[in-house]
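[step 3/7] fold_predict: job queued, chain A
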Amino acid sequence: MSNLTLIFRGLKISNVVSRVPSVVPVRMKHCWNMELPKPGQGKSYRRIVHFPEEYTIKPLEVTNLAGRDPATGRVVAKGIGGGIKHKYHWIKWQRDGPAEGPPQVEKVLDVLFDGCRTANIALVGVGDELKYILATENMKPGDLIKTSRVIPRIPVRANEGDAYPLGALPVHTQVHCVEKYPGMPCHLIHAAGTFGTVIRKFDDYVVVQMPSKQEFAFKQTCMATVGRVSNVNHNKEHVGSATRKRELGYRPRSGLWHRKDGRHGRKIRPLPPMKIIGPPQTTESTVMRLTLPDINMKREKRNRPYGSVSITGHM
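[step 4/7] structure written:
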């Protein structure tokens, strides 16, 4: 104990403070200073999109993988292959607006179908800039949408397609394209017909209920687009034929039931024939008749060696 006391007495506050690292870890920094992820970095076995250096509305070239790993060339996903060749439209996932003053007004020029995603897309123009965004349920050409990063004291009455921070929207508002971190691309709620709901607010966070009914608390400065994603009836479309399934890019696979003949699976042999279950079978009782041995048999028995036994009878 005496040695430890001397060691602690020799320490100075200046020495302890000097040992604290001056560089804050990356996870502690504000997300505005983080480097934005490059597009196309996720792993996909359906297609590879060739992104240029700068954003463009020109349809991008794609390389169809048909379920193969681009590194090894081996089939990884067996259900992918074929399909109609589609161009890829680059979506601008960041809805960036002014941090103060009135919101930025943008005009919807056209609503298009994109074969590489489930939802429809909208061509939006503001000033000299053109970009693609996800279209909402009732969006049509000629609509005016607003984008702002201002969080007012009173929640705004946003229209469908407007983009505001979560802290600026009232409770029970339907949203999609929610930022996971402030300043990063909108990661969440992209599928057709999906939406999240603003449930409540506490401190500096806003609770959003996801389409999976799970609740997440985001920073109130995270941007979100108001409304529901377009193409609501996507999961209700009737495919109709196997050819249409191949056009969508899906290879044949075994369904719930199909007759197997030994070519593509184990052979199902026919069941054994019907068997009639009748009354239980009865066994006939056998009668055993025994006769007493005569005098000659007794004499033979006396002359036999010890231990031998002879029984005579009639069945």
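[step 5/7] annotate
Residues 166 and 225 are 9 Å apart (CA to CA).
Residues 4-30 have pLDDT under 50 and may be disordered.
exit 0
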